[in-house]
Amino acid sequence: MDSLAEEDRDAIRLWRVYKTVHEMVHDRHYSVSQAEIDLSLEDFKYQYFRNNKVDRQAMTFLVQHNEDPSNQLLVFFTDSSESIGIKEVKKICEKMVQQSIMKGIVIYQKGLTPSANKDSQLPRIQPNDAVAKYYGLKRGQVVRIVRNSETAGK
């Protein structure tokens, strides 16, 4: 397979991901310029293509919500061509905590290792549960429930 063609396919694929994620956060009312959404493939390559590959870390960006600038979202593109593990997820979370960012999206290539996939580690709460209904919880949201427990010694 021609390596130039492979690099071109990778650039095109990541350009599409770039455009899609920018459109998505714009649709969620985060501040994204029309120029970012309309970025051409040639301009994308000029900005992010280095040493015969796309610089995924340079694609990482931070946006603010239009109605509440303190509501920020970090969109992080991982560099790893392998599945990312708990170590990488912790680094991303630490970066977010340092910058007081409470929301993030991680764009990765292969997948998450089982230890990094928190969905597999957390207990599920049913949508018809009284607490879920009270708080208006939706599928995929993560909550921490703290209550007194005689058996747990708390």
UniProtKB/TrEMBL annotation:
Residues 117-154 form the RNA polymerase subunit H/Rpb5 C-terminal domain. GO terms for cellular component: RNA polymerase I complex; RNA polymerase II, core complex; RNA polymerase III complex. InterPro entries: Arch_Rpo5/euc_Rpb5 (IPR014381), RNA_pol_Rpb5_N (IPR005571), RNA_pol_Rpb5_N_sf (IPR036710), RNA_pol_subH/Rpb5_C (IPR000783), RPB5-like_sf (IPR035913). Residues 9-96 form the RNA polymerase Rpb5 N-terminal domain. It is found in: Nucleus. Its main location: nucleus. One of its GO terms (molecular function) is DNA binding. Belongs to the archaeal Rpo5/eukaryotic RPB5 RNA polymerase subunit family. This is DNA-directed RNA polymerases I, II, and III subunit RPABC1. It comes from Clydaea vesicula.
